[in-house]
User: Which sequence fits this backbone?
């Protein structure tokens, strides 16, 4: 799309994009850090992850107020309006992703010190890496305004569902044989569920990217592996 | 609702030239009853020219040649049996600059109904004037000064008076060429609200340079560029997701 005649509006839009880029990078880092700390049982790292979530909240608020101001001052329409609405929503999504990373850190902190932790067969990190990939690709699709990339994310959510479902079943069956580990296993279910939710949010980013480009939402129902776990 | 039953004015294959210069190039727009249609586009794209075709205001411009089909309720308005005065009674017009007659407020409104024989007694005429001023949202402001000269009113009041003058003769269609361009936001909002009420009874075609105004008040919007109609559609679609890149560039203030 061509430039605006009013360059100040373009400058405002560029600012918002910069803020989102920062926010996205931070959200990715938070997720990566919490997964790495879980994998490495790096007990010291969790506190800093939890602390840094505030920064994410701040950046999200910055995006929101920039968007609000641009809408108030410029009365944007059509693509311009969509791009601001979508920026605000993606900001909110990234804040949620940050919350899940924080929650993963909190729960991990509790379980990595358990002595039976290492004996667990559960591939949470595998699910985490899958979701990390989705987050990265969905942000790419959004920043590059790439409809095809966005649709690929939209369609690969089913893989997240399947991975989560198999982890869930594994944990449940393990739990009945090892009732003493119930508390830790419950945390693990929540961690997996958090990751699955992050996966959902990446499809929301994809959906917003589609809306940005097309002015409507994709009407195909997203493939689902399950609904009730 | 079958849309065809509700057509007030149909145009097709419209070409307008000023001398050898083409101002309108093959335009077709249908105007539906009780709808507001906005004509938007950059300066000089032919909005006023096209609007003036709709009540044959271009007839008075010597070098202006109008071709194409214009049907008002199915009747060709350029047909040989059409009397232009009657056409202008059916298709009224409000201009960019309020242009009340240099007469009293009362006479400004009463003039049209009088010459078109819409009132047979003075008290009937009084009623028409009062009713019309009411519908134009002006009555309470001017009821004590109906015999004052109209040019003493504020710009926004004058414009509402001109709208009153236009609707006093009960037209079917009201053409408005940038009616709010000289008005402040409050006077503009009053006129916009009035337009919204008027569409209960009239079909309105409005030229505006305010995108927000077009978005706020019109059901349909037509985007013109260099004499061509680039896009015509439901206003909410045009302003959220236009089909044509040129429309998008224009409405969002981009370099086209
Ligand atoms: N009386 C006239 N004689 C010659 N050319 C004319 C006349 N009126 C308009 N034109 C030309 O026709 C073209 C369309 O003019 P028109 O006034 O319809 O544009 P417009 O879209 O109403 O512009 P604006 O938004 O500035 O009012 C312009 O190139 C204009 O110069
Ligand atoms: Mg004009």
Assistant:
């Amino acid at each position: 799309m061509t430039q605006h005649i009013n360059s100040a509006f373009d400058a405002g839009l560029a600012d918002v994009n910069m803020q989102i880029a920062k926010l996205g990078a931070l959200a990715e880092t938070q997720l990566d850090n919490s997964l790495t700390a879980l994998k490495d049982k790096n007990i010291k790292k969790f506190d800093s992850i939890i602390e840094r979530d505030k920064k994410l909240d701040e950046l999200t608020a910055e995006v929101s107020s920039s968007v609000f101001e641009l809408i108030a001052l410029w009365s944007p329409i059509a693509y311009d309006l969509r791009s601001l609405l979508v920026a605000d929503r993606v900001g909110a999504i990234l804040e949620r992703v940050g919350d899940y990373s924080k929650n993963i850190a909190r729960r991990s902190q509790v379980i990595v010190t358990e002595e039976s932790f290492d004996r667990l067969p559960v591939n949470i990190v595998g699910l985490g890496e899958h979701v990390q990939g989705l987050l990265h690709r969905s942000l790419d699709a959004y920043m590059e305004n790439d409809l095809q990339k966005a649709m690929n994310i939209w369609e690969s959510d089913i893989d997240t569902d399947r991975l989560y479902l198999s982890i869930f079943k594994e944990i449940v069956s393990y739990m009945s044989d090892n009732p003493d580990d119930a508390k830790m296993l419950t945390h693990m279910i929540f961690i997996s569920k958090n990751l699955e939710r992050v996966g959902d949010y990446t499809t929301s980013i994809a959906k917003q990217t589609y809306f940005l480009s097309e002015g409507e939402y994709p009407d195909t129902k997203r493939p689902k592996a399950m609904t009730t776990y | 609702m079958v849309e065809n039953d509700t057509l007030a004015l149909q145009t097709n294959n419209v070409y307008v030239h000023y001398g050898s210069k083409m101002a309108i190039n093959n335009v077709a727009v249908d105007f539906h009853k009780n709808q507001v249609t906005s004509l938007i586009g950059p300066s000089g794209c032919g909005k006023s020219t096209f609007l003036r075709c709709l009540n044959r205001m271009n007839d008075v411009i010597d070098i202006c040649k109008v071709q194409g089909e214009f049907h008002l309720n199915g009747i060709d308005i350029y047909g040989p049996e059409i009397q232009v005065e009657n056409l202008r009674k059916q298709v009224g017009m409000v201009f960019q600059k309020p242009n009340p007659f240099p007469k009293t407020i009362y006479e400004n409104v009463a003039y049209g109904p009088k010459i078109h024989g819409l009132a047979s007694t003075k008290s009937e005429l009084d009623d028409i004037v009062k009713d019309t001023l009411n519908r134009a949202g002006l009555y309470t402001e001017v009821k004590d000064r109906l015999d004052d000269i109209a040019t003493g009113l504020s710009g926004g009041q004058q414009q509402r008076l001109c709208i009153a003058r236009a609707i006093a003769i009960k037209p079917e269609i009201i053409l408005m060429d940038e009616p709010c361009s000289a008005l402040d936001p409050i006077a503009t909002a009053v006129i916009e609200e009035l337009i919204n009420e008027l569409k209960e009874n009239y079909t309105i075609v409005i030229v505006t340079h305010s995108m927000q105004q077009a978005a706020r008040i019109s059901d349909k919007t037509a985007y013109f560029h260099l004499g061509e109609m680039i896009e015509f559609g439901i206003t909410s679609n045009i302003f959220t997701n236009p089909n044509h890149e040129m429309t998008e560039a224009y409405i969002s203030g981009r370099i086209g």
Q: What stands out?
A: The pocket of adenosine-5'-triphosphate (ligand 1) is lined by residues B 18, 23, 41, 43-49, 61, 63 (CB under 6 Å). Residues 8 and 73 of chain B are 5 Å apart (CA to CA). The first helix of chain B runs from residue 47 to 53.
